[in-house]
Amino acid sequence: MPNAQQAPLKIAVAGLGTVGAGVLKLLDAQASLIEQRCGRRIEVVAVSARSRGKDRGVDLSRVQWFDDPVALAAESGADLVVELIGGSEGPARDTVATAIETGKHVVTANKALLAVHGTEIARKAEAKGLTVAFEAAVAGGIPIIKGLREGLAANAVSEIHGILNGTCNYILTEMRTTGRDFADVLADAQALGYAEADPSFDIDGVDAAHKLAILASVAFGTPVDFPSVYIEGIRQVSAVDFDYADQLGFRIKLLGIARRTAAGVEQRVHPCMVPKTAPIASVDGVFNAVVAQADFADRVLFVGRGAGAGPTASAVVADLIDIARGRSTPTFGVPADRLGAASPSPMEARRGSYYVRLMVVDRPGVIADIAAAMRDQDVSMEQFLQRGRSPDAGVPVVLTTHDTDEAAMQRALATIAASDSVLEPPRMIRIEQF
């Protein structure tokens, strides 16, 4: 157990963007509280960033400055390196690798790095008796990694799903509540700072997929397998889909879902319709939420801010406090050499119900043709909605299905899309009955 006489934990921070500056501010503001809880001080001895002259609102006069983060990892004399650079390759990867090679613990908020190289990093760190901690990499200030790895350590987790990207959740919430289309709301999100100038990683689902791959590894004790994540973003969700979802009793959310199935471990990120009664349906705006299904604890819900300087810095410093206390757990909850390989379940094996929106020519026989395409693939329709009539012109048609296989649904949609009575590509959203 640490005591007041212990030497400070010396840390070096690589990356002084919003989160890096937030970490330094938090460490300064909460210094007494942190020392009380650790039994030792956490001392920043070195930093690195691209611009030395930028005002970050913190005093850097008493710390060593490195222009090169890799040199910081090698030469700073720190016990631990905090990597807040971002990206799966380049300086971020080299900084973490050098920190481990030179015997330093690592705390990171870098989900891309962990999704692509996490298993390799864990093996190298654990072989040297070092800790790699990454609470801030997934869901910002929500303690989901500790919740899964430690709070649910006595449970077998069969499923985890969640809202893992605040930008997308904000956009979908605004589309639902204002009736505006995607492009209009995205522009507002960029103006407010919720979306990047290039929002592709967020709106195309890649950011959420990085986080899901990490969560699946911790939840199931398997190697991180980002290439097996099915990814679909929110660009094709239209304002009209929210009207139909409301009529049908659903909300639309971009979800990451990881589940153990008879076919293997499925990992997928895509828009979902979820019942309005599901707890996750009411999580709006920039908030994140994660639900874990455990055998003894049952269903556990975590909700909080998924990004921002304060929540993310809070998660980084929580990891620093654990390491300062001498508390260590395997990186992904199971020693890296005992992570059990699991076969990925292909997206085609997904079984569930579907929402489909079509724009069709309003003439006799069109609906019968749609029904026949469904029937030929053993897809059973549950509900059918048509708004108004416009003979020989386009009208929207919406249907939902009973549970069916993804592969069968895709074959049916391909047949429907090829019809000259269908004026636009079919729009499909998967329904998840949580």
Overview of the structural elements:
By secondary structure, the chain is α/β, with parallel strands linked by helices. The protein is built from 14 helices and 17 strands. The protein has helices at 18-29, 31-38, 69-75, 90-101, 111-127, 144-151, 166-178, 182-192, 200-203, 206-220, 239-248, 309-324, 366-376, 406-417, and strands at residues 9-14, 42-48, 64-66, 80-83, 105-108, 132-133, 157-163, 230-231, 250-261, 264-275, 287-294, 298-305, 351-361, 381-386, 394-401, 404-405, 427-431. Strands 7, 8, 9, 10, 11, 12, 13, 14, 15, 16 and 17 form an 11-stranded mixed β-sheet that branches. A 6-stranded parallel β-sheet has the order 3-2-1-4-5-6, with helices on both faces. Strand 4 (80-83), helix 4 (90-101) and strand 5 form a beta-alpha-beta unit. The chain is elongated and about 85 Å long. It holds the Pfam family NAD_binding_3. The active site is at residue 211. This is Homoserine dehydrogenase.
Determine the number of helices (DSSP H or I, runs of at least 4 residues).
Answer: 14
The description of the largest β-sheet is: 11 strands, mixed
Mean pLDDT: 94
Q: How many angstroms separate the termini? A: 43 Å
Specify the structural class. alpha/beta
Q: How many DSSP-defined strands? A: 17
Helix content: 25-40%
Query: Radius of gyration, Cα only, in angstroms?
Result: 24 Å
The oligomeric state is single chain
- Return residue spans where pLDDT drops below 50 for at least 5 consecutive residues: none
Please state roughly what percent of the residues sit in beta strands, choosing from under 5%, 5-15%, 15-25%, 25-35%, 35-45% or over 45%.
15-25%
